[in-house]
Design brief:
Elements lengths: L12 H7 L27 H9 L11 H14 L3 E5 L2 H12 L5 E5 L4 H10 L6 E5 L4 H7 L4 E7 L11 H10 L3 E5 L4 H4 L9 E5 L13 E5 L1 H14 L5 H11 L2 H20 L6 E3 L9 H8 L8 E5 L4 H10 L4 E2 L9 E3 L11 H7 L5 E5 L5 H11 L6
Parallel strand pairs: 2-3, 2-4, 4-5, 5-6, 10-11
Antiparallel strand pairs: 1-7, 6-7, 8-9, 9-12, 11-12
Helix pairs in contact: 3-10, 4-9, 11-15
Length: 402
């Protein structure tokens, strides 16, 4: 093979130390695991070569395109069943890029009232400064969504399963409402992932995933994605490049590696979550358990229709304990397997306290409307043996005996 910039001319040591070994000159195609392209740029021979790269959408500069990011784009586009994707530096980067690329001053968004707290912060604190109005309603009641739609409405925004209340939205119905009113439906699918549910197949136009969570699954990479119709994704890509929130090569490589075992992990996590939810519902010390697999869940029938069975209702659940910070602390310290973490979706079971984390900045009155109380604990279920998890939780709950 012809070597790039090959010459017989010899330079000084201080120059050659920069030049020697800079390019792979032996045949190194089709490695078993994709290499990590930790380079900011790719060299070209001349301007003709540069413009050929432009035309073929080849690699020139890392912020615009990177082989590892493109590989993850290909994987996510398949996983969610879309036409194209972008890969962002975080889940919040994916959310903000999606919104900013699809609305302008004077537009209106109808959003679910129960969302990840920082998504709500964008809608309440950032968008009004740019002349975008947001109305919050309960998306489990589509009649409320329909009443909130105006002629200026451009987006209906929801999560498949809400954070942290674990409510379930009728995505088919929301999509019909959106399209009947010339809007797009944006769905955050982080909690369910494409393993359990594909919103695009149910009419969603754009699907967001915080790949930091279940998709990567190892709590070692921060990343996000948006998947959907090619026309909408191209608008988002243009904004993404200008905002500079593209994911780096190593993170993209890590997430792609994590996704290879996604089906194995998430199927186990969902089964564990259903078993744990059932056991916790039977505990006299738990006031309420939120998980769609339970008959007591208000959207149980809808969940069975969307997700198939009780063991496919997601790896996230939340429980309500008595409003005592002292007892909650005792309970957390007593647990051996589950640990507090400001993330979710990893292979180990973790806890979060929404009042102290995801909804810390949400006014108490608004938290109350969502059902987020001091005693609400969000649980991200891991791949431990279900019986071990159940025993550990039930033992720790004995602190409420005292």
């Amino acid at each position: 093979m012809e070597q790039f910039k090959r010459t017989e001319k010899e330079f000084s040591f201080e120059t050659e130390i920069l030049k020697q070994g800079a390019y792979i000159n032996a045949l190194a195609s089709n490695p078993e695991t994709a290499p990590i392209y930790l380079t900011t740029a790719f060299n070209v021979e001349d301007l003709d070569d540069l413009y050929d790269r432009y035309e073929k959408k080849g690699f020139c500069y890392n912020r615009n395109r990177n082989p590892n990011r493109n590989a993850l784009i290909e994987l996510m586009t398949y996983a969610e069943g879309g036409e194209d994707s972008i890969i962002c530096s975080s889940g919040m980067g994916a959310i903000s890029t999606t919104i900013f690329s699809q609305v302008k001053c004077g537009d209106h968004i109808v959003s679910d009232m129960t969302l990840y707290g920082e998504t709500i912060d964008i809608f309440k604190e950032v968008l009004p400064a740019y002349g975008v109005e947001v109305t919050f309603v309960d998306f489990t009641k589509l009649e409320e969504v329909e009443r909130a739609i105006k002629s200026e409405t451009k987006i209906l925004y929801t999560e498949t399963v809400s954070n942290p209340m674990i409510t379930v939205v009728d995505i088919d119905g929301a999509a019909k409402l959106a399209h009947d009113n010339n809007c797009i439906l944006v769905v955050d699918n982080t909690f369910m992932t494409s393993v359990a549910f594909r919103p695009i197949a149910h009419g969603a136009d754009l699907v967001i995933n915080s790949l930091t969570k279940f998709a990567n699954g190892h709590s070692d990479a921060v990343c996000g994605s948006v998947t959907g119709k090619a026309e909408l994704i191209q608008k988002a890509y243009r904004y993404q490049v200008l905002l500079g929130n593209t994911a780096d090569a190593f993170t993209s490589w890590l997430v792609q590696r994590g996704m290879r075992t996604m089906s194995l992990r998430i199927e186990k996590q969902m089964k564990n979550a259903a078993k744990l939810a059932k056991a916790l519902e039977e505990s006299p010390y738990v006031l309420k358990v939120n998980h769609p697999s339970l008959m007591s869940h208000p959207q149980h029938e809808l969940a069975m229709k969307l997700f198939g069975n009780e063991y496919s209702c997601g790896g996230m659940l939340s429980i309500v304990l008595p409003d005592s910070m002292e007892k909650i602390n005792l309970f957390m310290r007593k647990l051996n397997l589950a640990h507090y973490a400001m993330t979710l979706g990893g292979y180990r079971t973790t806890l979060a306290h929404p009042v102290s984390s995801s909804h810390y900045d949400t006014p108490e009155e608004e938290r109350a409307k969502m059902g987020i109380t001091l005693g609400l604990i969000r649980i991200s279920v891991g791949i431990e043996k279900a019986e071990d998890l159940i025993h550990d939780f039930l033992e720790a709950l004995n602190v409420y005996k005292e």
